[in-house]
């Protein structure tokens, strides 16, 4: 069984935009930067659950549309004075297709 | 006895491999070289100077007939290889079979031809080999010939520059937002575009080719947006594809390219492959440096060594005479990375280093690339740069003392550039005043009247004075727009107009932005300023807008949206109400609320349902209410003289006319109107941005009210006699606000800054000024007054509303 799922073409996401992938465990936001890098993060801000896919992207960061928290797309860490993180998922582009790691479909187990 | 080596492909990689092999030992192999072109190895990357006429073909030949002969290479140029039989170890060609002990495949790549209608017409060329170059030169020799180059990458731009130097009229059509997006960031791409445009090359970015048309031969290129470009020749330079059909037919493993291991062997140990046809560790290569590395590794391993190919950082330079451009490594921005940016707007220089963990990981340079090699070395060496970080960007010769000049943009302005629009003061006037003896900012202001009216040019005036006076002047601290720039909102707006800056990267470059991509604060402001300044030319950048304006609905705390259709002047009909009720039921809208602006809000609509609910509302004749916009919101009215016993004028009718005139416009912040039919003011017009109070003798026009965090009563702007005048004054006032206010300032804040007298001087006292303002407003309205909902129902920005993929049906493991 392959470990990655083809979720669409890179061109399906405009530069500096994001689109959603629906899973049983919530939505994943897939971002394409101005430089064609792709990132996948949970589409829920740890502050009040804001949909990060709807934020403004700048560099490899996104600003949550609800209360302007800023997250690093690489790490999912909140920037500046805010504390928190969103889960990130391995994702890559091959031959113009976006491949999301199958782990994104696995249920989350709380780590102690 | 020597072993037999057959080489398929006479390009740059195989030429280099043969050199290595023969230099080491010219007795081990008898070499037979097949080449598809009827000539030997030449330096393909130097075809651009041949095209431009700066070099002759003979100058770029790397291996001539003498070389092959003296090294005992049997040449079979122009002879097509049709197959490889690995069982019998023979290469099959038109003239028979050639046995081998080792085989080297270096079949290179083919140009990618985009599958548009008309791609087979006579006059559609690729840019790959000498034959293509000669064909292009043939077209260029026709008087007045026009060329369209599709693709604004390395190859396409070199072709465009060469054809332009040969006298052709050239247009570059590029799909992406800026040129050479794989090698350059947006700022450097903008500088490059400007340079090419200065040379007379037309550049269209974000342009999608729809078809090539003509009777038998190329006559024009049609773009998706309807643009028609006349053309005698079309050059397709959108990319290359590894060429490995022979290897594929011979059963060798392939993916995007012919697969090789670190030793440059295919899955058949007797068959090596190098160059653009191969895929190594998931990558295909199109630049020459790694191909030469492959050639060396393959040659060594054919001699029995076990060397490995290790890809290194590649740098790129554009081979267009007079364009200095360099990029290497990973220059995307983002968290965990820092950047050092140097911009000199006067000289057109841009340098950017991307740094992670105190090491350079990416370099982009434009205008001055002399330090490129020095940076590249530090990048390859992963050198810790923390010690020299302060001066790093100035390169190895930093002692020469070039320092970043924050006032470079002002220094670059020509003398005739207008600094103070109110008093018509140019940069030259200020300089003349200083030369005539004004030695301080106050003296300059007193003599020239610069920045003594609205004051928005104060920063620029100060900078011109500071530049001219030099060390005698201390620049006062001005508040920057955001952390990305020290320039104020006012200065940025002025420079956008003065320097004709027409894109966000252009502004960031010309004004020395400190970040490469801006932030969530400055990008929406820049997008608005550009859209206001250049309604005809500027292409709205949705990704620089807040989500509400991007998807034309208001985001709610749970991520759902609210939908508010326009109700002109607060008037509705049973049919409209029925459609709203039907839509609310159909889409399970949880909350239906009457708003303070006299319309109906449908709250809790799922984002995916937005286009469908808009479609239903459109069908009933309703359009977007722009309840989400920094733009015209509502026009609140009372019933007026039609029904009310106190009404003096038709306030409802005027409200509808005003709303129909103003809807769809964007502004620095939201803009609310009201029209009351008598001074009892039931529509609460005196706390609006623009309020009309009807009286017996006409219409009182009030401006600058607020009823939010601040509560403020309006001031009287003027009283007029007719509805037509009321509408013209309103449009002129709105346009003055649109053109001058800082982003996110409501009119009352702006008026507090510029003064009501300043506004009156332009809207009330000067009829020509009022008319010009209103004309500019209605000109912009011809572009912006379109229902965004209908456009999205028709498919605009559909990616915003649909998920990319639904994996709820896919099993985890």
The structure class of chain A reads mainly beta
Instruction: Tell me, briefly, the overall form of chain B.
Output: elongated
CATH topology of the domain at 3-109 and 242-302 in chain B: FAD/NAD(P)-binding domain
Q: What's the Cα radius of gyration of chain A?
A: 13 Å
The coarse overall form of chain A would be globular
Query: Can you name the CATH architecture of the domain at 3-109 and 242-302 in chain B?
Result: 3-Layer(bba) Sandwich
Question: Helicity of chain B, in percent?
Answer: 25-40%
Report the biggest beta sheet of chain A as strand number plus sense, adding barrel if it closes: 4 strands, antiparallel
CATH class term of the domain at 16-89 in chain A: Mainly Beta
Rounded mean pLDDT score of chain B = 89
Can you tell me about this structure?
Chain B: Keywords: 2Fe-2S, 4Fe-4S, FAD, Flavoprotein, Heme, Iron, Iron-sulfur, Metal-binding, Nitrate assimilation, Oxidoreductase. Chain B: Residues 629-767 form the Nitrite/sulphite reductase 4Fe-4S domain. Chain B: Belongs to the nitrite and sulfite reductase 4Fe-4S domain family. Chain B: This is FAD-dependent oxidoreductase. Helix content of chain A is 0%, strand content 40%. Chain A is an all-beta fold. Chain A has a domain at 16-89: Rieske Iron-sulfur Protein. The mean pLDDT of chain A is 89. Chain B is of the alpha/beta class and 813 residues long. Among the domains of chain B are: 3-109 and 242-302, 3-Layer(bba) Sandwich (FAD/NAD(P)-binding domain), CATH 3.50.50; 124-238, FAD/NAD(P)-binding domain; 414-473, Orthogonal Bundle (Arc Repressor Mutant, subunit A), CATH 1.10.10; 634-790, 2-Layer Sandwich (Sulfite Reductase Hemoprotein, domain 1). Helix content of chain B is 32%, strand content 21%. Chain B contains 27 helices and 39 strands. In chain B, β4 (81-85) and β5 form a beta hairpin. In chain B, α1 (12-24) runs parallel beside α9 and α16 runs parallel beside α18 (522-533). Mean pLDDT of chain B is 89; it is low at 399-404. Chains A and B meet through β1, β2 and β5 of A and α19 and β39 of B. β2 (17-23) of chain A pairs parallel with β39 (805-806) of chain B.
């Amino acid at each position: 069984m392959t470990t990655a799922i083809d979720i669409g073409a890179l061109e399906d996401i405009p530069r500096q935009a994001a689109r959603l992938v629906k899973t049983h465990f919530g939505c994943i936001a897939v971002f394409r930067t101005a430089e064609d890098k792709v990132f996948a993060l949970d589409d829920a801000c740890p502050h009040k659950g804001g949909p990060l896919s709807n934020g403004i992207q700048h560099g490899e960061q996104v600003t949550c549309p609800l209360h302007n928290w800023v997250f690093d797309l690489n790490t999912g860490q909140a920037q500046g004075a805010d504390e928190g993180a969103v889960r990130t998922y391995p994702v890559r582009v091959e031959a113009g297709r976006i491949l999301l790691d199958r782990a994104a479909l696995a249920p989350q187990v709380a780590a102690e | 006895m020597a072993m037999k080596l057959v080489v398929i492909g006479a390009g740059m990689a195989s030429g280099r491999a043969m050199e290595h092999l023969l230099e080491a030992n010219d007795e081990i192999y008898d070499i037979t070289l097949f080449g598809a072109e009827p000539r030997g190895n030449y330096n393909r990357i130097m075809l651009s100077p041949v095209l431009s006429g700066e070099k002759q073909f003979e100058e770029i030949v790397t291996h001539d007939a003498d070389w092959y002969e003296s090294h005992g290479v049997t040449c079979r140029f122009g002879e097509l290889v049709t197959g490889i039989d690995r069982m019998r170890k023979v290469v099959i060609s038109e003239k028979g079979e050639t046995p081998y002990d080792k085989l080297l495949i270096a079949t290179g790549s083919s140009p990618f031809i985009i599958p548009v209608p008309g791609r087979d017409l006579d006059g559609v060329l690729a840019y790959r080999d000498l034959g293509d170059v000669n064909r292009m030169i043939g077209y260029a020799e026709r008087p007045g010939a026009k060329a369209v180059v599709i693709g604004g990458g390395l190859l396409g731009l070199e072709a465009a520059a060469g054809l332009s130097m040969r006298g052709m009229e050239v247009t570059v059509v590029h799909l992406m937002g800026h040129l050479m997006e794989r090698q350059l960031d947006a700022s450097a791409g903008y500088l490059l575009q400007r340079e090419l445009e200065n040379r007379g090359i037309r550049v269209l970015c974000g342009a999608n080719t729809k078809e090539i048309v003509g009777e038998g031969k190329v006559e024009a290129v049609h773009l998706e947006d309807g643009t028609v470009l006349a053309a005698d020749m079309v050059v397709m330079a959108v990319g290359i594809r590894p060429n490995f059909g022979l290897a594929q037919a011979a059963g060798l493993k392939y993916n995007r390219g012919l697969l090789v291991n670190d030793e440059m062997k295919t899955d058949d140990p007797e068959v090596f492959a190098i160059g653009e046809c191969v895929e190594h560790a998931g990558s295909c290569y199109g630049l020459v440096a790694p191909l030469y590395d492959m050639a060396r590794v393959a040659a060594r391993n054919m001699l029995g060594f076990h060397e490995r190919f290790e890809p290194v950082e590649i740098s790129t330079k554009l081979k267009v005479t007079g364009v200095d451009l360099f990029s290497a490594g990973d220059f995307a921005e983002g968290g965990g990375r820092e950047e050092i940016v140097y911009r000199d707007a006067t000289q057109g220089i841009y340098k950017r280093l991307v740094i992670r963990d105190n090491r350079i990981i990416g370099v982009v340079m434009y205008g001055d690339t002399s330090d490129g090699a020095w940076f590249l070395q530090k990048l390859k060496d992963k050198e810790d740069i923390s010690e020299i970080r302060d001066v790093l960007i100035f390169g190895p010769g930093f002692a020469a003392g070039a320092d970043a000049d924050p006032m470079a943009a002002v220094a670059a302005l020509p003398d005739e550039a207008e600094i103070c629009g109110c008093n018509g003061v140019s940069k030259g006037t200020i300089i003349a005043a200083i030369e005539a003896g004004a030695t301080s900012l106050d003296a300059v202001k007193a003599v020239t009247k610069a920045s003594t009216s609205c004051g928005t040019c104060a920063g620029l005036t100060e900078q011109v004075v500071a530049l001219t006076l030099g060390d005698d002047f201390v620049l006062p601290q001005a508040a920057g727009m955001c952390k990305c720039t020290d320039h104020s909102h006012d200065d940025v707006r002025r420079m956008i107009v003065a320097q004709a800056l027409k894109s966000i990267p252009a502004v960031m470059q010309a004004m020395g932005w400190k970040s490469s991509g801006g932030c969530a604060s400055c990008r929406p402001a820049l997008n608005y300023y550009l859209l206001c300044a250049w309604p005809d030319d500027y292409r709205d950048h949705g990704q620089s807008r807040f989500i509400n304006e991007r998807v034309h609905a208001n985001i709610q705390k749970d991520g759902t949206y609210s939908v508010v259709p326009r109700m002109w002047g607060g008037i509705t009909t049973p049919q409209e109400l029925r459609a709203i009720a039907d839509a609310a039921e159909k889409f399970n809208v949880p909350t239906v609320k009457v708003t303070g602006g006299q319309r109906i809000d449908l709250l809790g609509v799922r984002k995916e349902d937005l286009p469908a609910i808009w479609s239903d509302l459109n069908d009933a004749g309703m359009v977007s209410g722009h309840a989400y916009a920094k733009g015209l919101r509502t026009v609140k009215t009372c019933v007026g003289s039609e029904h009310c016993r106190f009404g003096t004028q038709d306030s409802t009718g005027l409200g509808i006319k005003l709303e129909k005139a103003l809807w769809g416009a964007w502004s620095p912040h939201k803009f609310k109107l009201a029209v009351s039919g008598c001074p009892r003011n039931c529509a609460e017009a005196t706390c609006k941005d623009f309020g009309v109070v009807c009286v017996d003798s006409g219409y009182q026009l009030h401006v600058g009210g607020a009823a939010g965090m601040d509560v403020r009563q309006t001031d009287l702007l003027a009283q007029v006699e007719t509805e037509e005048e009321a509408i013209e004054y309103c449009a002129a006032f709105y346009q003055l606000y649109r053109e001058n206010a800082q982003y996110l300032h409501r009119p009352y804040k702006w008026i507090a800054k510029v003064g009501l007298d300043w506004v009156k001087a332009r809207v009330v006292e000067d009829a020509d000024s009022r008319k010009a303002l209103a004309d500019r407003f209605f000109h912009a309205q011809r572009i912006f007054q379109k229902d965004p909902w209908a456009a999205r129902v028709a498919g605009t920005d559909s990616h915003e509303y649909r998920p990319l993929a639904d994996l709820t049906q896919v099993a985890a493991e």
